[in-house]
Amino acid sequence: MYQLEQPIYFYILFAIPVIVVVFLLLLVWKRKVQKRFVDKELLKKLSPNRSLFKSVLKVLLLCLAVACLSFALVNPKIGTKLETVKREGVDIVFALDVSKSMLAEDIAPNRLEKAKQLIIQVINGLAGDRIGIIGYAGSAFPQVPITSDFSSAKLFLNGMNTDMVSSQGTAITQAIEMAQTFYDDEEQTNRVLFIISDGEDHEGNVSEYAEEAAEKGIRIFTIGVGTLEGGPIPIKENGVLQYYKRDQNNEQVITRLSEETLKEIANTANGDYIDGTNTKVVVDQVKAILNGMDKKEFEAKQFTDFKDQFQWFLAGALFLLVLDVFLLERQTAWLKKLNLFNEREKQ
């Protein structure tokens, strides 16, 4: 198990292709200048030990030093001690609506991104709980099984988009049905399902599925994202607006938040409806809901002792830089024998 303390410093690696390009441009420029002012045979006599291989080697060492420096600043940490720890929490499943209507920008930046932000902020406030994530549109699909690894869950969450499901619609019923298979601990008395959606275009008898989930001890809370006034659905390509979605009559589709549907689901499954407009209010409400539930104690194995590894990369970077400084660009005897890059002087 490992951790990256400051992954932002990986951006330093972009300096490597810059160094290579500058070196190649400098090499081309030198060749042009030499051809213009110095005869090729005369240049060989004036600098018989000039080595292209040594120049390439020095640039390679510099690039490796930059890579080592980048990893040193990132400071990877390796887990050295695996312990079994006891945690108390609730099993929580998030069902995220990824239908096209979630692209509407009536709530900034759009409904889908707002929903992701809400889930991430809720996860950040969790402690000993376990979470799972389901995505759904015309059909439902499991994105993250029940886990206590919040970092991985957030990583998969950020990758969710409206292109993950080809069939459109809002199959809330399938999401509720799939959520029932996520709770793998029969002794867990408190099971929570948060449905984050605009509630539009739902299919099937939602109340029936919500009631069935309630009978299995699952409480459903719905979080509505969007506005009652609604907005058009932008279709973008590479971030550029192409057009707004239209119906069969070529009229612009306006998608609106369906609070009644979401409230009906929550009320049927002993939950509550939460307005997703204000992130802080949502997080506070969710926190209050979870704090009012009985926590189940369970054991989990995790690394508890992480040791810094930056010193190895820093030492490597310093060694390579020192080696680059003392490495001369002229040929050595054994390199002449190898005749790399066809550098041997023609007789």
TrEMBL record:
Domain of life the protein comes from: Bacteria
What sequence ranges are listed for the domain VWFA? 91-269
Keyword check for Amino-acid biosynthesis: no
Q: Do you know which SMART domains this protein is assigned to?
A: VWA
Task: List, alphabetically, the Pfam families matched.
Answer: VWA
Report TM segments: 6-30, 51-74, 310-328
Q: Which UniProt keywords apply?
A: Cell membrane, Membrane, Transmembrane, Transmembrane helix
InterPro entries annotated for this entry? UPF0353/GerABKA_families, VWF_A, vWFA_dom_sf
PANTHER family recorded: LEUCINE ZIPPER PROTEIN 4, SPORE GERMINATION PROTEIN
Q: Can you say what this protein is called?
A: VWA domain-containing protein
